[in-house]
Amino acid sequence: MAKYDCDIRTVLDIPLWEKVQDQIAALTGTSVICVDVKGVPVTKSSGQTEFCRLVRQDPVYLNRCYRCDALAGLEAMRLEQPYIYLCHCGIVDVAIPVILGDRYLGAVLFGQVRIPDNDDQGGIARLVSDISPIGEGDISSEKLAELYEKIPYMDYSQIVKIAELIRTLVHYVVERVMNNYTEEQARHALLSFSDKRGKTLPPDQDEETKDEFEEDIPVSKSSAIYPAVAFVKNHLNDSITMKEMAALCHLSPSYFSRLFGRELGENFVSYVNRQKIQLAKGILRETNKSVSQIASELSYQDSSHFINLFKRFEGITPQVYRQYNCK
Q1: pLDDT per residue as tens digits for the range 209-222
Q2: For residue 113, what is the enclosing H or E element?
Q3: Are 4 and 252 in contact (CB under 8 A)?
């Protein structure tokens, strides 16, 4: 996308997501909540246990809850998968990262359960070094202990299944946001980027020519890399860097590179060079410009590099190509 509305509240559509998490909580018997990068809730808590509700009324415990939620979300983001852990109160929670492109926006958390003593706990990480002693704050330790015993048990294997379900839902929602990229947004991004480089796109053409132009772009208008591919098509005479194109699409260079390769089947540099060589073939056929002139016009500083690229793609040198294809 040319510009993500990089806020977890918008990406997840909070009113709709709260209805979804209510259903998840009811079906699974767990608590579900969504937090931002700082661990601060952005949704209500669905299915919250009485133990956690009471704990979060104490400022000391609440700050620890926020810290746990923030750290767990970051760890899930680092691992790029659900992170199952013990919170500071010693109960099991799971963080599923919400990542748009490569930007971490927050996490969906579920859990507030315990696992049986005879269950395998090897897959549960200990997020903090010390478990908070019950009754450390202003809340009655007897009351907390009573509510702790009411926290439901759940097998580890069931926790993993729920984590995968929520992970799939989050992935689906985020993918819809990434694909909800309109043609108008793409053209606005192209115009904006061209202006920054002191250049403009060709003037508006008639509808037939415009349709032909768009049909020649090998990715759909909804693709996150559409602005870059369209820009390359219009600026083959320029020196085009992947970093600039990633910025045009508001993606990191690494994510842009992966996405580009996945959608077009070759890396960005190879694609740009291939398009430049196709343009060079037309110039060789239609003009008497020297190879060094053509290389310069296509922003290759070294004509020998241009010749080697041409031979790599076409199997022959530019001179030989002209010899057999010149009108």
Answers
A1: 444 444 567 888 77
A2: strand 103-113
A3: no
Q: How far is CA 244 from CA 118, 196, 201, 204, 260, in A?
A: 55, 11, 16, 24, 14
d(CA 37, CA 254): 22
DSSP state, residue 102: T
Helix (H) or strand (E) holding 97: strand 92-100
Cα–Cα dist 138/19, whole Å: 33
User: Is it the case that residue 245 has pLDDT exceeding 50?
Assistant: yes
Question: Rounded to an integer, what distance in angstroms lies between the CA atom of residue 136 and that of residue 172?
Answer: 42
Q: Which residues contact 260 (CB under 8 A, 6 or more apart)?
A: 225, 228, 267, 268, 271
Query: Which domains, from first to last, does the chain contain?
Result: 8-179 (3.30.450), 183-325 (1.10.10.60)
Are 41 and 33 a contacting pair, CB within 8 Å? yes
Among residues of the chain, what percentage have pLDDT more than 70? 80
Question: Given this model, what pLDDT does residue 199 score?
Answer: 53
Q: What are phi and psi of 98, to 5 degrees?
A: -110, 110
Helices and strands in the chain, H and E counts: 15, 5
With beta carbons less than 8 A apart as the criterion, state whether 227 and 186 touch.
Answer: yes
Across 98-112, 254-268, 287-301, least confident range: 98-112
Q: Summarize pLDDT for 110-161 with one digit per residue, the tens.
A: 999 999 877 666 678 877 766 666 655 556 778 888 899 999 999 999 999 9
- Do 106 and 171 contact (CB within 8 A), yes or no? no
Concatenating the DSSP letter of every residue in 27-80 gives HHT-EEEEEETTS-BSSPPBT--HHHHHHTTSHHHHHHHHHHHHHHHHHHHHHT
pLDDT of residue 275: 94
User: Which amino acid is residue 225, in one-letter code?
Assistant: I
